[in-house]
Amino acid sequence: MRSIIIAGNWKMHKTQVEALDFLSSFVHEIDTAPGEREIVLCVPFTALSTLSKNLHGSRIRLGAQNVHWQDNGAFTGEISPPMLRELGVRYVVVGHSERRQYFGETDETVNLRSKAAQAHGLTPILCVGETKAQRDAGETETHILSQLKKGLEQVDQTNLVIAYEPIWAIGTGDTCADDEANRVVGLIRSQLTNTDVPIQYGGSVNPSNIDAIMAQPEIDGVLVGGASLKSDSFARIVNYQA
Ligand code: PGA
Predict the structure, then answer these.
(1) What is d(CA 224, CA 205) in angstroms, rounded to the nearest whole number?
(2) Domain with 130 in it: what CATH number?
(3) Catalytic site includes residue 56
(4) Residue 36 in contact with residue 3, Cβ under 8 Å?
(5) Is 63 in the pocket of ligand 1 (CB under 6 A)?
(6) Residues annotated within a binding site for substrate
(7) Ligand 1 centroid vs 74 CA: distance in angstroms?
(8) pLDDT at 57
(9) Residue 201, SS3 per DSSP
(10) Distance (Å, whole) CA 181 – CA 183
């Protein structure tokens, strides 16, 4: 039985005060969501401590947006797995396309980050996806298979989430067609040794398209950027109609 995981990725949005303001409405807006839906907020490092203290007794799980592979050391600007664990973090986004594109993440560093997260009991949400140019050139499959092969080397598939995020669909309003997202997610699943790994879709998910996306048989959840910033919008996504 595959888990359903609905995760918000706040990216570089919200101060602590804004995060608490979101939470004060969100907790009420999701209180009738079916219990089997795992709800995750992947927030800036600076909001983790405050949210962690305010999530006690809540079903909402805390996620970070990146993690280094060493426990400590001379790595200015990085955050280690034990630092996240101490704050009650359960999930961590690894290899988001914005990290790959703007901050030089490679499949190798993504792989190191995923393994280190797992070694400390965190669940990596490993992101893969093609650019528009790769899609137009018919390279979607080869690109994703290559990202998976390198990214998943020695990664424990019993503590893992994968997010298929076509880069051209992120933040553009240009959602991938539901059946095409389903097809690529199925292709990703065919590469796994554990076919129960939850695989999310991400890229312009919003309250209007969530029901159709979640109706796709291969898709086990979503990773949501822009539409996770407002509590009513993200709550509608969490409360999708099955
Ligand atoms: P979006 O972002 O929902 O704003 O397209 C998704 C993501 O980057 O994870």
Answers:
(1) 6
(2) 3.20.20.70
(3) no
(4) yes
(5) no
(6) 9-11, 171, 204, 225-226
(7) 31
(8) 87
(9) strand
(10) 5
Task: Determine if ligand 1 sits within 6 Å of the CB of residue 185.
Answer: no
Q: What is the structure's pLDDT at 1?
A: 80
> Nearest residue CA, atom 7 of ligand 1?
225
- 10 CA distance to ligand 1 middle (Å): 9
User: Using a 6 Å cutoff on CB, does residue 65 contact ligand 1?
Assistant: no
Look at strands 37-42 and 4-9 and give their pairing: parallel
Whether 96 is a known active-site residue: answer yes
Catalytic residue among 38, 68, 96, 105: 96
**In total, how many domains does the chain have?**
1
Ligand 1: which of 5, 6, 9, 228 to mutate, most ligand atoms within 8 Å of CB? 9
Kindly give the number of the ligand 1 atom that is closest to the alpha carbon of 223. Answer: 9
Per-residue confidence in pLDDT tens, the chain, 242 aa: 899 999 999 999 999 999 999 999 999 999 999 999 999 999 999 999 999 999 988 999 999 999 999 999 999 999 999 999 999 999 999 999 999 999 999 999 999 999 999 999 999 999 999 999 999 999 999 999 999 999 999 999 999 999 999 999 999 989 999 999 999 999 999 999 999 999 999 999 999 999 999 999 999 999 999 999 999 999 999 999 99
Question: What range defines the domain where residue 12 resides?
Answer: 4-238
Q: Helix, strand, or coil here: 2?
A: coil
User: Taking a C-beta distance cutoff of 8 angstroms, is the pair 185, 201 a contact?
Assistant: yes
